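User: quick one, sequence for these C-alpha coordinates?
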Protein backbone atom coordinates (compact mmCIF):
# COMPACT_ATOMS: atom_id res chain seq x y z
CA UNK A 1 0.00 0.00 0.00
CA UNK A 2 1.12 3.59 -0.66
CA UNK A 3 1.49 5.71 2.47
CA UNK A 4 3.01 9.01 3.58
CA UNK A 5 6.10 9.23 5.84
CA UNK A 6 3.63 9.45 8.76
CA UNK A 7 2.05 6.11 7.83
CA UNK A 8 4.60 3.31 8.25
CA UNK A 9 3.31 -0.14 9.15
CA UNK A 10 4.97 -3.30 10.40
CA UNK A 11 6.07 -6.24 8.32
CA UNK A 12 3.01 -8.26 9.38
CA UNK A 13 0.44 -5.58 8.52
CA UNK A 14 -2.68 -6.92 6.79
CA UNK A 15 -5.56 -4.61 5.85
CA UNK A 16 -8.05 -7.46 6.13
CA UNK A 17 -6.92 -8.18 9.69
CA UNK A 18 -7.24 -4.47 10.50
CA UNK A 19 -10.91 -4.61 9.50
CA UNK A 20 -11.39 -7.79 11.48
CA UNK A 21 -9.88 -6.17 14.58
CA UNK A 22 -12.15 -3.17 14.06
CA UNK A 23 -15.28 -5.29 13.82
CA UNK A 24 -14.40 -7.46 16.81
CA UNK A 25 -13.67 -4.37 18.89
CA UNK A 26 -17.11 -3.00 17.97
CA UNK A 27 -18.55 -6.35 19.07
CA UNK A 28 -16.79 -5.94 22.42
CA UNK A 29 -18.17 -2.43 22.84
CA UNK A 30 -21.74 -3.57 22.25
CA UNK A 31 -21.17 -6.52 24.58
CA UNK A 32 -20.23 -4.11 27.36
CA UNK A 33 -23.22 -1.92 26.52
CA UNK A 34 -25.51 -4.89 27.13
CA UNK A 35 -24.13 -5.17 30.67
CA UNK A 36 -24.59 -1.52 31.61
CA UNK A 37 -27.45 -0.69 33.96
CA UNK A 38 -28.49 2.11 36.33
CA UNK A 39 -26.42 2.00 39.50
CA UNK A 40 -23.26 0.60 37.94
CA UNK A 41 -19.97 2.43 38.57
CA UNK A 42 -17.16 2.94 36.09
CA UNK A 43 -14.92 0.46 37.92
CA UNK A 44 -17.68 -2.16 37.96
CA UNK A 45 -18.25 -1.60 34.25
CA UNK A 46 -14.55 -2.18 33.57
CA UNK A 47 -14.77 -5.54 35.35
CA UNK A 48 -17.67 -6.46 33.08
CA UNK A 49 -15.56 -5.35 30.12
CA UNK A 50 -12.79 -7.76 31.09
CA UNK A 51 -15.26 -10.65 30.89
CA UNK A 52 -16.41 -9.51 27.44
CA UNK A 53 -12.83 -9.28 26.18
CA UNK A 54 -12.06 -12.82 27.32
CA UNK A 55 -15.23 -14.16 25.72
CA UNK A 56 -14.20 -12.62 22.39
CA UNK A 57 -10.67 -14.04 22.58
CA UNK A 58 -8.77 -10.76 22.54
CA UNK A 59 -4.96 -10.95 22.58
CA UNK A 60 -4.26 -7.90 24.68
CA UNK A 61 -5.16 -4.28 25.29
CA UNK A 62 -3.26 -1.61 23.45
CA UNK A 63 -4.85 1.03 25.65
CA UNK A 64 -6.93 0.57 28.81
CA UNK A 65 -10.72 0.69 28.44
CA UNK A 66 -12.25 4.07 29.22
CA UNK A 67 -15.82 4.00 30.48
CA UNK A 68 -17.06 7.44 31.49
CA UNK A 69 -20.42 8.12 33.12
CA UNK A 70 -22.41 11.35 33.44
CA UNK A 71 -20.24 14.32 34.40
CA UNK A 72 -17.11 12.33 33.51
CA UNK A 73 -18.11 12.22 29.82
CA UNK A 74 -16.54 15.67 29.40
CA UNK A 75 -13.11 14.34 30.41
CA UNK A 76 -10.35 13.19 28.08
CA UNK A 77 -8.47 9.93 28.48
CA UNK A 78 -5.65 11.86 30.18
CA UNK A 79 -7.94 13.14 32.94
CA UNK A 80 -8.98 10.99 35.92
CA UNK A 81 -12.68 10.49 36.50
CA UNK A 82 -14.41 12.15 39.42
CA UNK A 83 -14.78 9.35 41.99
CA UNK A 84 -18.04 7.81 43.10
CA UNK A 85 -19.99 8.43 39.90
CA UNK A 86 -22.67 5.84 39.12
CA UNK A 87 -25.06 5.56 36.19
CA UNK A 88 -28.34 7.26 37.04
CA UNK A 89 -31.81 6.31 35.81
CA UNK A 90 -31.64 9.10 33.19
CA UNK A 91 -27.99 9.50 32.24
CA UNK A 92 -25.32 8.95 29.60
CA UNK A 93 -22.00 7.16 29.32
CA UNK A 94 -19.37 6.43 26.71
CA UNK A 95 -17.10 3.48 26.05
CA UNK A 96 -13.66 3.80 24.41
CA UNK A 97 -11.81 0.56 23.61
CA UNK A 98 -8.38 -0.30 22.24
CA UNK A 99 -8.04 -4.06 21.67
CA UNK A 100 -5.63 -6.26 19.74
CA UNK A 101 -6.90 -9.17 17.66
CA UNK A 102 -4.68 -11.18 15.29
CA UNK A 103 -1.82 -8.79 15.99
CA UNK A 104 -3.79 -5.75 14.77
CA UNK A 105 -5.29 -2.84 16.65
CA UNK A 106 -8.97 -2.03 16.93
CA UNK A 107 -10.03 1.31 18.42
CA UNK A 108 -13.69 2.32 18.68
CA UNK A 109 -15.90 4.45 20.89
CA UNK A 110 -19.53 5.46 21.23
CA UNK A 111 -21.94 7.16 23.64
CA UNK A 112 -25.21 5.77 25.00
CA UNK A 113 -28.15 7.08 27.00
CA UNK A 114 -30.18 5.52 29.81
CA UNK A 115 -33.80 6.46 30.39
CA UNK A 116 -35.37 9.78 29.41
CA UNK A 117 -32.55 12.29 28.92
CA UNK A 118 -33.31 14.12 25.65
CA UNK A 119 -30.43 16.62 25.84
CA UNK A 120 -27.94 13.87 26.51
CA UNK A 121 -29.41 11.83 23.66
CA UNK A 122 -29.10 14.85 21.37
CA UNK A 123 -25.44 15.16 22.36
CA UNK A 124 -24.75 11.47 21.66
CA UNK A 125 -26.52 11.73 18.30
CA UNK A 126 -24.58 14.89 17.43
CA UNK A 127 -21.22 13.21 18.09
CA UNK A 128 -22.11 10.41 15.65
CA UNK A 129 -23.46 12.85 13.08
CA UNK A 130 -20.36 14.99 13.33
CA UNK A 131 -18.09 11.97 12.92
CA UNK A 132 -19.89 10.92 9.74
CA UNK A 133 -19.87 14.46 8.33
CA UNK A 134 -16.12 14.76 8.89
CA UNK A 135 -15.48 11.29 7.46
CA UNK A 136 -17.57 12.18 4.39
CA UNK A 137 -15.56 15.38 3.91
CA UNK A 138 -12.36 13.33 4.00
CA UNK A 139 -13.70 10.91 1.39
CA UNK A 140 -14.96 13.58 -1.00
CA UNK A 141 -12.52 16.47 -0.53
CA UNK A 142 -9.17 14.80 0.26
CA UNK A 143 -8.74 17.02 3.32
CA UNK A 144 -5.63 16.93 5.47
CA UNK A 145 -5.85 15.88 9.10
CA UNK A 146 -5.56 19.51 10.16
CA UNK A 147 -8.35 20.53 7.80
CA UNK A 148 -10.57 17.72 9.06
CA UNK A 149 -10.46 19.00 12.61
CA UNK A 150 -10.93 22.62 11.50
CA UNK A 151 -14.05 21.41 9.69
CA UNK A 152 -15.15 19.44 12.77
CA UNK A 153 -14.84 22.57 14.93
CA UNK A 154 -16.85 24.64 12.47
CA UNK A 155 -19.61 22.06 12.26
CA UNK A 156 -19.71 21.47 16.04
CA UNK A 157 -20.21 25.18 16.62
CA UNK A 158 -22.96 25.30 14.01
CA UNK A 159 -24.68 22.37 15.72
CA UNK A 160 -24.52 24.09 19.12
CA UNK A 161 -21.85 21.95 20.76
CA UNK A 162 -18.29 22.53 21.94
CA UNK A 163 -15.55 20.43 20.31
CA UNK A 164 -12.79 19.17 22.60
CA UNK A 165 -9.60 20.22 20.81
CA UNK A 166 -7.40 17.98 22.95
CA UNK A 167 -8.86 14.91 21.23
CA UNK A 168 -7.76 14.81 17.61
CA UNK A 169 -7.21 11.28 16.36
CA UNK A 170 -4.22 8.99 15.96
CA UNK A 171 -2.65 6.11 14.05
CA UNK A 172 -3.40 2.40 14.29
CA UNK A 173 -1.73 -0.54 12.55
CA UNK A 174 -0.39 -3.95 13.37
CA UNK A 175 0.57 -3.81 17.04
CA UNK A 176 2.26 -1.67 18.24
CA UNK A 177 1.61 1.41 16.11
CA UNK A 178 3.30 3.56 18.79
CA UNK A 179 6.77 2.62 17.58
CA UNK A 180 6.15 4.66 14.43
CA UNK A 181 5.57 7.93 16.34
CA UNK A 182 3.18 9.24 13.70
CA UNK A 183 1.60 11.96 15.84
CA UNK A 184 -2.04 13.07 15.98
CA UNK A 185 -4.40 13.05 13.03
CA UNK A 186 -5.34 16.65 13.80
CA UNK A 187 -1.70 17.70 13.26
CA UNK A 188 -1.26 15.84 9.97
CA UNK A 189 -0.64 18.22 7.07
CA UNK A 190 -1.22 15.47 4.48
CA UNK A 191 -4.41 13.65 3.52
CA UNK A 192 -4.67 10.52 5.72
CA UNK A 193 -4.82 7.16 3.99
CA UNK A 194 -7.72 4.76 4.41
CA UNK A 195 -7.52 2.15 7.15
CA UNK A 196 -4.66 3.67 9.16
CA UNK A 197 -6.14 6.52 11.19
CA UNK A 198 -8.71 6.82 13.96
CA UNK A 199 -10.99 9.85 13.72
CA UNK A 200 -11.98 10.89 17.25
CA UNK A 201 -14.84 13.26 18.01
CA UNK A 202 -15.55 14.49 21.54
CA UNK A 203 -18.09 17.23 22.15
CA UNK A 204 -19.70 18.76 25.20
CA UNK A 205 -22.76 20.79 26.06
CA UNK A 206 -21.74 24.46 26.14
CA UNK A 207 -22.97 24.97 29.72
CA UNK A 208 -24.07 21.63 31.23
CA UNK A 209 -21.66 18.96 32.60
CA UNK A 210 -22.05 16.23 30.02
CA UNK A 211 -20.56 15.33 26.67
CA UNK A 212 -20.30 12.60 24.07
CA UNK A 213 -17.58 10.67 22.28
CA UNK A 214 -17.42 8.74 19.03
CA UNK A 215 -14.46 7.24 17.18
CA UNK A 216 -13.81 4.75 14.42
CA UNK A 217 -11.34 3.88 11.69
CA UNK A 218 -11.34 6.18 8.67
CA UNK A 219 -12.06 3.96 5.66
CA UNK A 220 -13.20 4.44 2.10
CA UNK A 221 -16.06 2.10 2.93
CA UNK A 222 -19.02 4.30 3.83
CA UNK A 223 -20.93 1.67 5.83
CA UNK A 224 -19.12 0.64 8.97
CA UNK A 225 -19.80 -1.87 11.74
CA UNK A 226 -22.11 0.51 13.60
CA UNK A 227 -24.40 0.92 10.60
CA UNK A 228 -24.41 -2.81 9.95
CA UNK A 229 -25.55 -3.40 13.53
CA UNK A 230 -28.28 -0.74 13.42
CA UNK A 231 -31.01 -3.33 13.76
CA UNK A 232 -29.62 -4.63 17.03
CA UNK A 233 -29.17 -1.09 18.30
CA UNK A 234 -32.87 -0.42 17.79
CA UNK A 235 -33.71 -3.09 20.34
CA UNK A 236 -33.79 -2.18 24.01
CA UNK A 237 -30.78 -3.69 25.74
CA UNK A 238 -30.25 -4.71 29.32
CA UNK A 239 -30.62 -1.79 31.67
CA UNK A 240 -33.62 -0.35 29.85
CA UNK A 241 -31.83 1.87 27.37
CA UNK A 242 -31.69 2.02 23.62
CA UNK A 243 -28.31 2.95 22.11
CA UNK A 244 -28.41 4.45 18.63
CA UNK A 245 -25.64 4.32 16.06
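Assistant:
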Amino acid sequence: MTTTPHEPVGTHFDATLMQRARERTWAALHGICERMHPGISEDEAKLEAEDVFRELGFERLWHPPYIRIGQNTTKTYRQPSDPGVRLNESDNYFIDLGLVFDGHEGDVGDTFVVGAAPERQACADAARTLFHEVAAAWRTQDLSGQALYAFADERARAMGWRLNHEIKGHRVSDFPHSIHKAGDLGDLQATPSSGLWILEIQIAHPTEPFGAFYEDLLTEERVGPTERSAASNDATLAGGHTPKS
